[in-house]
């Protein structure tokens, strides 16, 4: 069975024939009461700005030549995205080079982002690590800084099993009071979260969306059919985002939007309207 062994800096997930099926349909966390996505979901979304459809920029972190964060430029970028029609801001993700930033820099970026766009655009903060306790702590900190949701990547390097992923994300969701967007990017993490695992996690009222950077658009329709419409499905691949939305996705968490935010937002709007020709143009 899966055993989760937590150390100060690492989550080790050891597998010996664990079955995901043993977890699916079971109550989340230690409570004996199962979660429902209906009324609890509405309460979760009222806690901050709701996650939008459309184009959410995976915001780059501007740096000075000496490597310090360029705060004045960050402010200008955030103001620019408001004017250009970006639907949401994602900070401290892969494109934001979060792995290269210290805690003080992350705190300043969160604070500045809240000052510039808080209450106007939804703010999603990347908080994922390979450690369950560390991710919980980072997610709680993001909430204190005014994040509307947390983007949490699958644990990287340690290659957890599907049952391990389910346990990891469930422990986090049980421990925080902020909506969670799952982030599946197997090309960078070495682990692919299956559709079955995603569906199981979607039943948790605090888990409200997925950034899907698998490059497999065939997953979209099955997930949408099973999960329903109140769970956000975002493409994490700019080149495939149009088709992702045409097949049932909600939008994209976009790198391209760093340089062409208005164009990406227009493509997403056209795709959402099922106007394939306009979306391609």
From TrEMBL:
Matching Pfam families: DHDPS (PF00701)
Protein keywords: Amino-acid biosynthesis, Cytoplasm, Diaminopimelate biosynthesis, Lyase, Lysine biosynthesis, Schiff base, Signal
Signal peptide region: 1-21
Pathway annotation: Amino-acid biosynthesis; L-lysine biosynthesis via DAP pathway; (S)-tetrahydrodipicolinate from L-aspartate: step 3/4
Reactions that this protein is recorded to catalyse: L-aspartate 4-semialdehyde + pyruvate = (2S,4S)-4-hydroxy-2,3,4,5-tetrahydrodipicolinate + H2O + H(+)
Xref: SUPFAM superfamilies: Aldolase (SSF51569)
Top-level class of the enzyme under EC nomenclature: lyase
Similarity field: Belongs to the DapA family.
PANTHER family xrefs: 4-HYDROXY-2-OXOGLUTARATE ALDOLASE, MITOCHONDRIAL, DIHYDRODIPICOLINATE SYNTHASE
Protein name, as recorded: 4-hydroxy-tetrahydrodipicolinate synthase
Protein species of origin: Phaeocystis antarctica
């Amino acid at each position: 069975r899966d055993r989760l062994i937590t150390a100060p800096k690492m989550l080790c997930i050891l597998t010996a024939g664990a079955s995901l099926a043993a977890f699916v349909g079971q109550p989340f966390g230690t409570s004996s009461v199962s979660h429902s996505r209906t009324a609890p979901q509405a309460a979760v979304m009222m806690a901050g700005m709701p996650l939008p459809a459309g184009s959410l920029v995976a915001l780059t972190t501007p740096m000075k030549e000496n490597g310090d964060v360029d705060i004045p430029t960050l402010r200008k970028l955030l103001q620019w995205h408001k004017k250009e029609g970006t639907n949401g801001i994602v900070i401290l993700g892969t494109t934001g080079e979060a792995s290269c930033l210290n805690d003080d820099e992350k705190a300043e970026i969160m604070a500045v982002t809240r000052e510039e766009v808080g209450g106007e655009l939804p703010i999603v903060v990347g908080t994922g690590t390979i450690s369950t306790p560390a991710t919980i702590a980072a997610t709680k900190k993001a909430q204190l800084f005014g994040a509307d949701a947390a983007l949490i990547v699958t644990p990287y390097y340690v290659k957890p099993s599907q049952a391990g992923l389910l346990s990891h994300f469930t422990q986090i969701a049980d421990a925080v009071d902020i909506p969670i967007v799952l982030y599946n990017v197997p090309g960078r993490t070495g682990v692919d979260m299956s559709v079955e695992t995603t569906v199981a996690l979607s039943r948790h009222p605090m888990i409200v969306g997925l950034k899907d950077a698998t490059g497999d658009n065939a997953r979209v329709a099955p997930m949408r059919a099973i999960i329903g419409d109140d769970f956000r499905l975002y493409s994490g691949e700019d080149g495939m985002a149009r088709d992702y939305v045409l097949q049932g996705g909600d939008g994209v968490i976009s790198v391209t939007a760093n340089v062409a935010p208005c164009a990406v937002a227009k493509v997403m709007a056209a795709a959402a309207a099922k106007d394939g020709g306009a979306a391609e143009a």
